[in-house]
C-alpha cells in the first residue's frame, strides 16, 4: 500500500538557496527585506507599498489580493499602535469579500477599506536627488532565515515542510511590528519554526509548540538556535510539545504557567485535515477561556480548492469545515462568545513568495459585550 506524499507548492515558485543535508532534509535560506518605517504617515498609519519586496519589484500587493468593499464597524476602537486598516467580522454566510479597519489602528474616520483609499490622502515622500540630479534609490536592508526542513513528507508530517501561510503570517508580523513589540506570543503548530523566528525579532517571549513526530521538536530547536542572531536580544524563545488532541486540563503544569502571560496566539497552515481541525478549534477555545491576557489569535492558511460532483463547483472543503466547526463551538451555548475576523492581506510582502489570492488571514478574539 503506497503512502501519500505531499509537497509544498512554495518550492516550485521561488528560487530558494538550498543545500541538501544528506539525511533527507534541506537547509534553505528564506530572504526578506526589513520594514522601512521612515515613510510612515502621521498618527502611526503606514501606507501600503512604501516598503517590502512588492515596491522593490515594481508591482502592487493588491494585484494578488481580491478587491474589497468598505464596511464600517462603529465599535472598533484603538488598542495600542497600528499600521494597516484591515479587518472585518465574517458573518456566517461566509462573505469573505468584506474588509474593514483593524481595531489596533489609528484611523479615526473608519471609512476606508485596507489602505487603498487611505493612500490617496497621504502625502507622498519627496523624491530625493543627488548633486547630479539623479534619483537616489534607497537600498532596503535585507536578511535571511535559514531553515532545515523536508521537501516532501507524509500528510501526517507536513509540519516538517514550509508552506505559504507561514510566510504570509511572517509578513503580517513584520508589518505590524509595533503591535507585537515586547509581547508574549504562543505559536501553535510551529513546524520547523519560520514564523516563530520572525516573531522573536520583536517579541519579549515566543513559545513554539508542536507534536514530537519524526524528530520535529529537535529540528525546531535547531532552527531557533540557527537564527538566534536575528532575534530581539531580550526575547526568550522556548520550545514545548503541545498536541491539539490533548485537553488543556491535561497540559503539564509548567506549560500552563508559561501560557499565563501570552497575549497573542499565531498559527499557520494547520487547516488540512478535519480531525486535526476539530482538535485545533477545541484548543483555540480552551486558550480563549483559560489565558487571562490573550488578546487575539491569528490564523494564516491557504484555501485549497477541489471540484466535487455534489457541489458541481470548486470548493475549499477544509476551510469551509473549519468555519462550520468554529461556529458550532462558538454558539454552543446560544450566544457567540468570540468573533472571527477576516484580515485584509493588502500589506507589503517582505518575503520572496507568490502571495496568491487564496491565502487567508483570520483573527479570533473575544466578542464585545
Commentary on this structure:
Residues 60-71 have a biased composition (Low complexity). GO terms for molecular function: protein methyltransferase activity. Residues 73-87 have a biased composition (Acidic residues). The chain has 369 residues and is an alpha/beta fold. It contains 10 helices and 17 strands. Helices cover 24% and strands 22% of the residues. The strands form 5 sheets. It has an 8-stranded mixed sheet, sandwiched between helices. Strands 2-3-7 form a 3-stranded antiparallel sheet. Strands 1-8 form a two-stranded antiparallel ribbon. Residues 39-51, 59-86 and 91-121 have low confidence and may be disordered.
Please tell me the CATH architecture of one domain by its name: 3-Layer(aba) Sandwich
User: How big a fraction of the residues is strand?
Assistant: 15-25%
- Characterize the quaternary organization of these chains: single chain
Mean pLDDT: 79
Low-pLDDT ranges: 39-51, 59-86, 91-121
Instruction: State the secondary-structure class.
Output: alpha/beta
Percent of residues in helices: 10-25%
**What's the CATH topology name of one domain?**
Rossmann fold
Query: How many strand units?
Result: 17
Order of helices and strands: EHEEHEEEHEEHHEHEHEHEHEEEHEE
Tell me the major beta sheet: 8 strands, mixed
The CATH homologous superfamily of one domain is called Vaccinia Virus protein VP39
Overall geometric form: globular
Whole-angstrom Rg: 20 Å
Distance from N terminus to C terminus (CA atoms, Å) equals 54 Å
CATH class of one domain: Alpha Beta
GO molecular function, one term: protein methyltransferase activity
GO cellular component, one term: nucleus
InterPro entries: Methyltransf_16, METTL22, SAM-dependent_MTases_sf
Protein name: Methyltransferase-like protein 22
Amino acid at each position: 500500500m503506497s503512502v501519500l506524499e505531499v509537497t509544498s507548492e512554495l518550492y516550485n515558485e521561488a528560487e530558494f538557496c538550498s543545500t541538501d543535508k544528506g539525511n533527507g532534509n534541506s537547509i534553505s535560506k528564506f530572504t526578506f527585506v526589513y520594514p522601512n518605517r521612515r515613510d510612515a504617515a502621521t498618527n502611526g498609519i503606514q501606507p501600503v507599498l512604501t516598503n517590502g519586496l512588492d515596491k522593490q519589484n515594481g508591482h502592487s500587493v493588491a494585484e494578488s489580493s481580491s478587491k474589497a468593499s468598505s464596511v464600517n464597524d462603529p465599535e472598533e476602537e484603538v488598542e495600542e499602535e497600528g499600521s494597516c486598516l484591515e479587518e472585518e467580522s465574517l458573518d456566517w454566510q461566509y462573505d469573505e469579500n468584506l474588509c474593514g479597519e483593524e481595531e489596533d489602528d489609528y484611523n479615526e474616520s473608519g471609512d476606508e477599506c485596507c489602505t487603498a483609499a487611505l493612500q490617496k490622502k497621504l502625502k507622498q515622500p519627496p523624491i530625493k536627488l543627488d548633486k547630479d540630479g539623479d534619483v537616489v534609490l534607497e537600498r532596503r536592508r535585507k536578511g535571511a532565515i535559514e531553515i532545515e526542513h523536508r521537501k516532501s513528507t507524509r500528510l501526517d508530517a507536513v509540519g516538517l515542510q514550509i508552506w505559504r501561510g507561514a510566510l504570509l503570517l511572517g509578513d503580517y508580523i513584520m508589518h505590524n511590528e509595533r503591535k507585537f513589540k515586547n509581547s508574549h506570543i504562543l505559536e501553535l503548530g510551529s513546524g520547523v519554526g519560520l514564523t516563530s523566528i520572525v516573531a522573536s525579532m520583536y517579541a519579549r517571549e515566543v513559545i513554539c509548540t508542536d507534536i514530537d513526530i519524526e524528530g520535529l521538536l529537535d529540528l525546531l530547536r535547531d532552527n531557533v538556535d540557527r537564527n538566534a542572531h536575528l532575534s530581539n536580544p531580550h526575547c526568550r524563545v522556548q520550545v514545548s510539545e503541545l498536541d491539539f488532541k490533548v485537553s488543556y486540563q491535561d497540559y503539564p503544569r509548567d506549560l500552563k504557567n508559561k501560557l499565563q502571560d501570552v497575549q497573542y496566539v499565531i498559527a499557520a497552515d494547520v487547516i488540512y485535515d478535519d480531525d486535526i481541525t476539530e482538535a485545533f478549534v477545541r484548543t483555540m477555545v480552551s486558550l480563549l477561556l483559560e489565558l487571562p491576557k490573550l488578546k487575539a489569535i491569528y490564523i494564516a492558511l491557504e484555501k485549497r480548492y477541489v471540484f466535487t460532483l455534489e457541489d458541481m463547483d470548486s470548493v475549499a472543503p477544509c476551510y469551509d469545515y473549519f468555519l462550520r466547526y468554529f461556529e458550532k463551538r462558538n454558539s454552543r451555548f446560544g450566544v457567540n462568545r468570540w468573533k472571527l475576523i477576516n484580515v485584509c492581506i493588502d500589506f507589503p510582502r517582505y518575503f520572496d513568495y507568490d502571495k496568491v489570492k487564496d491565502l487567508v488571514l483570520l483573527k479570533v478574539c473575544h466578542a464585545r459585550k
